[in-house]
Amino acid sequence: MEPNASNSGINIHSHHHYLETISPMELHKVVLPPHRTTLQKFSTRLKETFFPDDPLRQFKGQSLGKKWILGAQYVFPILQWGPNYNLKLFKSDIVSGLTIASLAIPQGISYAKLANLPPIVGLYSSFVPPLVYAVLGSSRDLAVGPVSIASLIMGSMLRQEVSPTNDPLLFLQLAFSSTFFAGLFQASLGLLRLGFIIDFLSRATLIGFMAGAAIIVSLQQLKSLLGITHFTKEMGLIPVLTSVFHTTKEWSWQTILMGVSFLVFLLVARHIIGKLQEGLNPPSWNMLQFHGSYLGLVIKTGLVTGIISLTEGIAVGRTFAALKHYQVDGNKEMMAIGLMNIIGSSTSCYVTTGAFSRSAVNHNAGAKTAVSNIIMSVTVMVTLLFLMPLFQYTPNVVLGAIIVTAVIGLIDVPAAYIIWKIDKYDFMVLLFAFFGVIFISVQHGLAIAVGISIFKILMQVTRPKTVILGNIAGTDIYRNLHHYKEAIMVPEFVILSIEAPINFANTTYLKERILRWIEEYEEQKDSKKQSSIRFVIIDLSAVSAIDTTGISLFKDLKKVMENRGIELVLVNPLGEVIEKLQRADDAREMLKPDALFLTVAEAVASLSSTVKGQSSSYV
Predict the structure, then answer these.
(1) pTM
(2) DSSP 144
(3) Which of 193, 495, 140 is nearest to 318 (CA)?
(4) Count of CB atoms within 10 A of residue 593's CB?
């Protein structure tokens, strides 16, 4: 047992003195919860799992016509705020829409390049998806379009099997197909109410992942900034640096110097975007691939990019919603972003979501509704129709600089420091994500970090926290002996608290740990002249659920303790726990009155009175 000597060594005389200080208490009966059928319990569990926000509550007590209106507004949020839209809101939205369009156009071109796609695809992806989101999305501030992280992941995953330079058409087909599967996955999560899956991407994982990705993306731009022709296709730190320093003869010092000179237009003609196709998005549904040897690749790419972009979009939407004190429906956002990408994949767009930098600009520019996305989309449409020749001579070095400037803000050092300060394990997850992305690959780094996060959850499930309680003198309060130094052990009692659900994954550990508490107490008994254990009290106040294996745990413990002359006492089992204990306790041994109490204080007072009575009779 782990308590220090001052808490664990109590001799016989102090034992009798302690019993005398315990006053009789009024005992409260532990009662069963109101009876519910299995179907009712299953319905409640199902509702809390998949419908925690109770989306149907708004339909209660409404007429049929009103229900149809509310249903249409739920599916299409634009119908909710659209009828009240006015000129004042439009003035704010047009300013913010034009502002984010000025950012979206160069970013769209740059991020498409980051994904190894034709620059024009980035502009296509800033035209159709914002229109779809304006109709289906619930955020007023989210500005939709391509984002750096999703672009990086898609480009790196597809490039592992298909070269964008040797087979650009196939690469484009795979990108559109991956976007379709990303959208299908996202919409399915929303439709099936499975949004909790993306919660496995913890904040620590995302911060480490984005920081690592930002460094890799920035280093990849050395190809444009230095004018290198032969550059590695790998995304790891070592291959990129090796490629840079093994091609020093290719460095275009002209390109480097042009970054600070107007002469860039004249001297880097061979390092420009080139002619961009004019016109609106051509249909691309005929380019989607649902069979063949690359089907596994596009599904995997769609799954990864779908999760990442969905996580970023919802996180950004919730961030700005909190600033303006309104709610964003996570499941509606999943369906909106998913349908946006499904439609986008058929209109020459690749994966899009809500970007933090663009949404921040939208928010600061005074956006009031999703009309700002429509204004941005119309501006991009005008650009596609009439202004494309203006971008023909844009140097690649400029695009590289735009990308570096955008992604460098993803390195959040203050947030990493806070995580290190609060939780070292979370900081370790952050480091694994960071170094995994840098030294292995983007997707493997993310997978490692998620794996470690899941391992942490499994450890919490299989190794639940158990603490030994002591009494704070002069009170009826029992607290952790290691936490409260003024707490003392009660003679002849070992009082334990289990602070997690009990299930098949942790019953073996719990049995071993409880028996170890008893054995350690007995080992100290002889050396410190303590009284033998008569009662083991287990506080179940924090045990919210139990399964059949957990019920067997208490039966086994009771048998083991009876053989040692120890009584097992349970305190405050919650609704589900006491129901299952009662069903399993045919002989009424575990739930008899002197083995079941509402509080630890009542258990100690009642059992101590019994001990005192027995001692008096013996004397």
Answers:
(1) 0.71
(2) E
(3) 140
(4) 11
